[in-house]
Amino acid sequence: METTDPAVAAAAVADGDLVVYPTETVYGLGADALDAEAVTRVFDAKRRDRTEPVSMAVPTVEAALEYTRATAPERAFMHEFLPGPVTVVLERTAAVPDVLTGGRDRVGVRVPDCEPALALLAETGPLTATSANVSGRESARRVADLDSEIRAAVAVALDAGETPGGTPSTVVDVTAGRVHRRGAAAADVEDWLDAH
Asked: Which pTM does this prediction carry?
């Protein structure tokens, strides 16, 4: 089912279902990031290796701090770059399930700079933040471009038209001073790390 109403997608998440939602980069595959069973269904839909962590999206930096233990430099970085096309790797709390992080003690956190996504997240709380595609396939910038397998796995696709960017988020570990994946805003992130 396709919709432009975040409340319809939020209701599906509350039922434990998977949804597709827009970001400023590509469409994401969302489920309740704190529900281990829902997260497992995301891995299954993407055919993703369970050792590869999935990030989580939240509506604000303050919300991210409810599920992580961020250092002062990490907080400063988040306030500089979020919302935006950047994923910050932070120490997680016990509320974040092992399946999301592949058993690691850190989790990638994203605050998308996309109004429909933020409206959805304001209703649902943390969602999985991973591209809405089978692993290894092209990411989708339009709902019409979704894999048939992804379409079959989700209850609702929140359609906001074509996403403005196609480059995935930059993934950064501020504490280590390392960019794990160069993506959107990578040069700005690297400049910030160099200056701090």
From this structure: 0.94
Question: Taking residues 161-168, what's their average pLDDT?
Answer: 90
Number of separate domains in the chain: 1
Question: Which residue has tokens 């299954």?
Answer: 44
Name the burial class of residue 52, with classes exposed (0-12), middle (13-18) and buried (19+) by CB atoms within 10 angstroms of its CB.
exposed
> For the segment 120-133, what is each residue's pLDDT rounded down to a tens digit?
999 999 999 999 99
| Short-list 131, 130, 128, 126, CA closest to 64 | 126
Domain with 86, as residue range(s), is: 2-195
Provide the token pair at 81: 């770059």
Is residue 104 within 8 Å of residue 53, measured between CB atoms? yes
3-state class of 50 per DSSP? coil
Report the alpha-carbon angle 92-76-114, nearest 5. 75
CATH assignment of the domain containing 9: 3.90.870.10
